[in-house]
Every structure is written in structure tokens, then in C-alpha cells.
């Protein structure tokens, strides 16, 4: 799939990160879908694998994206969370 860098993620903050992409958003801890307005992962969003197990309940402290060019949009969606460049997609 284009637009998704293959850089491996080793940042320990990942498990508290809400990852917002173009057409989906997910939890950095359990990798299940997560609504973009969640403070903690207590609901699973209907993308990808749904209905198997439960969302992990982790508290979101950071927000990130794995797409180039989405940084500003993601920041504006969640100004309450600290943006981190988990996937190395922010240029400059
Ligand atoms: Zn989760």
C-alpha cells in the first residue's frame, strides 16, 4: 500500500498513541480501530478487524499518523494530544 512507510516502530510511546490516517484510525497499543474522539480506547471503530476481542482500554496521550502530509490535519483534530512523528513521515 502506498503512503505507509515501512520504518519499524520501536517508540515506547506507541502504546499510548492514537494513530489517525486517511480513511481509518487505530490504537497504537492493540492495533484495533479507534474513533478519533476517544480519550481512551474503550470503543472499537468499524474498520479492519472488528468484533474479535475487545479494545484494550489504554489512555491516549499522543497522536500520530503514518501518512505523509496529514500532520496538520491530525494536530487540528486532536489539539489536546501531543503529536509525535512515530513513523517518520514529517519532512523538514
Ligand atoms: Zn487499543
In a few lines, what is going on in this structure?
The chain has 92 residues and is mainly β. The chain has one helix at residues 71-77; strands at 17-20, 25-27, 62-64, 82-83.
Features:
single chain, 92 residues, mainly beta, four-stranded mixed β-sheet, 1 helix, 4 strands, 8% helix, globular, binds zinc ion
Question: Explain this structure to me?
Answer:
The protein is mainly β. The chain has one domain. 8% of the residues lie in helices and 13% in strands. The protein contains 1 helix and 4 strands, in the order βββαβ. Strands 2-1-3-4 form a 4-stranded mixed sheet, covered by helices on one side. The two termini are 24 Å apart. The relative contact order is 0.26. The mean pLDDT is 86. The structure holds zinc ion. Zinc ion (ZN) binds at residues 27, 29-30, 32, 41, 55-56, 58. Zinc ion is lined by residues 27, 29-30, 32, 41, 55-56, 58.
List the helices and strands and how they pair.
Blueprint: E1 17-20, E2 25-27, E3 62-64, H1 71-77, E4 82-83
Parallel strand pairs: 1-3, 3-4
Antiparallel strand pairs: 1-2
Question: What is the H-and-E element order?
Answer: EEEHE
Number of helices: 1
Instruction: Give the helix proportion (percent range).
Output: under 10%
Radius of gyration: 12 Å
Quote the distance from N terminus to C terminus: 24 Å
